[in-house]
Amino acid sequence: MLALYFILLVCVPLAIIMTFTAPRLAITVAVNQPAYLVIQNSSTTYTPHRVVTSQQLNNDELLLHQASKVNRKPPPKLPKKLAFMFLTTTSLPLAPLWELFFNQTSHHKSLCNVYVHADPAQKQKPDFFRNRIIPSSKPAYRHTPTLVSSARRLLAHALLDDPSNYMFILLSPSCIPLHSFNFTYNTLASSTKSFIEILNNEPGWHDRWAARGPYAMLPEVQPEEFRIGSQFWTLTRSHARMVVSDVEIWSKFNKPCVRKDTCYPEEHYFPTLLHMRDPQGCVSATLTHVDWSVSDHGHPRTYKPSEVGAELIQKLRSARLRYGDGGGTRKDSFLFARKFSPAGISQLMNIARDVILN
């Protein structure tokens, strides 16, 4: 009996001390659900992935620094995963199509993760993927560096969340898949290169380079190093790590512009950085189709419900990618397309199984 009292006297206070240590926020994957970010209070040192403090989550610099320390390559014995990252300011009106896309295979839970960056100031949040919203989401606006910051934030969370994330795909709310999940997965998981549009000497490129002032980009980004490309890309894990580790080039693009009409950092920062750091590791084309033959105040063509049909999907699939630096004779296929009107979700769902995901 004395021994029992002694054990209680020693162990109970110790348990209380351990219980009331300051809780940390751990990024982990929810059980029995598709993988995504879950923030939970944790008093223990164990977590299946990296532990991130609340201060790091709310401070971009600390968050990016933590993400820069992850492994360059995924674990060799685990299946490669695709990280689908949606950058949105409001809802995800085409989410039902994406739900169907992800649920096509019973193995999707072990082959992909979903992350959503949603503006916390907006009252209308995504109905689907609501519990995939990263906790450090912040407002994002055109003609400012905030769209780039949002993408870097998504990359940081995806890197920290799952060491098996191999390819990181940036998507918009108006994007749709053009192929089945299996086709998309096999295409990207077998690639050793990033897919990012890297274009040189585009019309008006010098005005874009000088959008922050005639000397603001110097000396780090010389005019001849400046590149332009689609803001939607697919990056390898090593390139995702490169982006979150970058301080030097980002310090130039993270400046306010003096001319808004030429200020599109989200189309300049990523292609310029990858061109300067590892052009040989990139396929210089985007896998997201967009039609710029019709432009509306700086936005590409939006497909109306009446235009949605099997013929349009086949046309987008067969379109040839535009390759920039070092494109060579590659013949890759578009995997995604934008912009599709939210009003066209019914038409998209009507052809989803037999056409889009077939």
Automatic annotation (TrEMBL):
Keywords: Glycoprotein, Glycosyltransferase, Membrane, Transferase. GO terms for molecular function: glycosyltransferase activity. GO terms for cellular component: membrane. InterPro entries: BC10-like, Glyco_trans_14. Its main location: membrane. It is found in: Membrane. Pfam families: Branch. Coiled coil: none annotated. It is a single-pass type II membrane protein. This is Core-2/I-branching beta-1,6-N-acetylglucosaminyltransferase family protein.
